[in-house]
Design goal:
By secondary structure, the chain is an alpha/beta fold. Helix 11 crosses helix 14. The longest helix is centred in the last third of the chain and has 22 residues. It is globular and about 65 Å long. The termini are far apart.
């Protein structure tokens, strides 16, 4: 069975909500919708206090090529446009809306009409995706329309659909495939037409046998789409590792997937594209896994963008008494949050509640030079060395060691017997080196 060639680990799956049907969250009384829910320039607010909005009303417009529109996820009145604390304690601009109902923009057709897509050109599909504010829903939140527009001289050969979901605990993509397989495949076909490719591969890890079987049955009637089961190994959901696993091509250091003829889109993104093109529905909601070993009822919930994380936790049975840490995302690549009243965003795949026993780090010891961090690094880096260089602020040497190639997957820290915070240091070093590289580029 296929997988990527270098490194990787096998953390405990903990898919507590696997097979749990999607539940639609009740509307909150108020939402706070961030205007920067994507990689790139924040969107520019186009509404003001007192304005009435409906579900799907544009409230912030993309302000650059790499940017994305933001739409209201509820109907009601704009209470304020202000800077509020996000999940990690940073102040971010949000549009706060008092909910008064669930009235949708007239142009949105929730029943959908596939016929309206028949004559759309690649350019028209990309424009509609852009208008709908769709970004990568696997967590990276890169504007989808930008990915579908390769730079001059680069040609896409294959569309890869990332349905791996290798992060422990998370199950939102899995349940989406089980409940919306036809819609996902329609989205894949639309993405193929947008990217002007004749081949698409859906990569799914082998712990989702029901989803594999269902999609394989359905793609047998379609041309150019295949489903490829993959051996379970983390971080297979990373773009470069998935490309290696599925088509055996290695993306060069510092390069993008298009360099090897691939465009990668998350399975949730494919579903969002279906809704944007067939229903004319912007990205105003998403499926979020709310989970944890002590949580009363781990769930997969369909929640409106801007809903407070506290509301999701309450809907899943409330915060357990032994909760010590809450993570936005999964335990490997997610980040601990400091504000549960912060809203879910387009890239919010999960809310994970962990006890003290699960989340407290062991005391750091000296490096024993075992080399385990090197053996599991799927980018071929030397995390122990990078940590040392960052500690000493040796930025030029860290750049020479390609610290910018780090995926921040956490495999090095996970496997270190000395409990060294390798990822923390490498992540800081990566951010610092990339800032230096950008400043050097501007000066040139």
């Amino acid at each position: 069975m296929k997988t990527f060639k270098i490194g990787g680990i096998h953390p405990e799956e903990c898919k507590l909500s696997a097979g749990v049907a999607i539940e639609k969250m009740p509307l909150p009384t108020q939402v706070a919708i961030p205007v920067a829910q994507h990689i790139g320039a924040p969107a520019t607010v186009v509404v003001a206090k007192g304005d009435k909005v409906k579900v799907g009303t544009l409230i912030a417009q993309a302000s650059g090529f790499v940017s994305a529109n933001v739409h209201s996820s509820v109907s009601g009145v704009v209470a304020k446009v202000d800077n509020e604390l996000d999940a990690f304690g940073n102040r971010r601009q949000v549009v706060v809306i008092d909910v008064e109902g669930d009235e949708w923009e007239e142009a949105i057709d929730l029943k959908g009409d596939f016929k309206r897509t028949f004559n759309l050109t690649s350019e028209e599909i990309i424009e509609r995706i852009k208008n709908a504010g769709i970004v990568g829903l696997g967590g990276a939140t890169f504007p989808t329309h930008v990915k579908l527009m390769p730079p001059p001289g680069k040609v896409a050969e294959v569309l890869i659909i990332n349905a791996v979901e290798c992060e422990p605990y998370l199950t939102s993509d899995h349940v989406l495939m089980l409940e919306y397989a036809d819609e996902i495949l329609t989205g894949v076909q639309l993405l193929m037409r947008a990217a002007k490719v004749n081949r698409a591969i859906i990569g799914i890890e082998n712990n989702k046998k029901d989803a594999i079987a269902l999609l394989q049955e359905k793609v047998s009637k379609l041309i150019g789409i295949e489903v490829c089961p993959l051996k379970m190994k983390y971080p297979q959901g990373s773009e470069k590792q998935l490309i290696d696993a599925l088509i055996g091509r290695q993306v060069p250091s510092g390069a993008l997937p298009i360099e090897v003829g691939a465009i990668v889109q998350n399975v949730g993104t494919a579903f969002a594209v279906y809704e944007a093109i067939v229903k004319n529905k912007p990205l105003v909601d998403r499926i979020v896994t709310v989970t944890g070993k002590s949580l009363a009822t781990p769930k997969n919930v369909l929640a409106r963008i801007g809903t407070p994380m506290s509301a999701l936790i309450a809907y899943a049975g409330g915060m357990p008494d032994d909760t010590f840490k809450i993570i936005a995302g999964g335990p490997m690549m997610g980040r601990a949050i400091v504000n549960i009243e912060a809203p879910i965003q387009k890239g919010s795949s999960g809310v994970l509640l962990m006890s003290e026993r699960e989340s407290v780090r062991a005391e750091m010891d000296n490096c024993i030079r075992c080399g385990k961090c090197v053996s599991v690094c799927c980018m071929g880096l030397q995390p122990y060395l990078l940590m040392s260089l960052v500690e000493k602020k040796m930025w030029q040497e860290a750049e020479q060691e390609a610290v910018y190639d780090c995926l921040e997957c956490g495999s090095c820290s996970f496997t270190c017997p000395a409990h060294r915070p390798l990822l923390d240091y490498v992540r800081y070093g990566k951010a610092t080196v990339m800032k230096i590289m950008r400043e050097r580029s501007v000066k040139k």
